[in-house]
Amino acid sequence: MTAVVSDTSPINYLCLIDAIEVLPRLFDAVLIPPAVIAELRHPRAPRAVSDWLDSLPPWAKIQAPLVLLPGMELDPGETEAISLALELRLPAILIDERAGSLAAQQRGIAPIGTLNILLSADTHGFLNFEQAVERLRSTNFHINESLLNAVLEEVRARKKP
Question: Is CATH 3.40.50.1010 the classification given to domain 3-115?
Fold first, then answer.
């Protein structure tokens, strides 16, 4: 296990489906840049997210990058998250958005999306992937249905006796 930097989306959705507690079981620490905190504190943020932020657990640490990478043309949260991950030489970042994931990948950082977090948590026995996905579907999370169905088939095949 290691530390990981998170963008807004994975924290938001994990809070919404009541699965945020898988993060400290998968990572030693989750570093959250100030711009991500600001996005999570948006006035229209869901109550589950603001409640979590109001009692930030010790494994979630707010940390700003020393320098922002220029020219990424991403939102402030993604820019700070990728900059921090590079600065700390972390191998991965929690991020869902396609442009941010591609920018991270181009810089040698593995993007880990919300579905991958849930899949890893299921593999380790920390939650049930199918139940988590059903809760995720009740949010505004966007996912390619054929991709999701392929992952669900994989999970079901792995769990067959």
Answer: yes
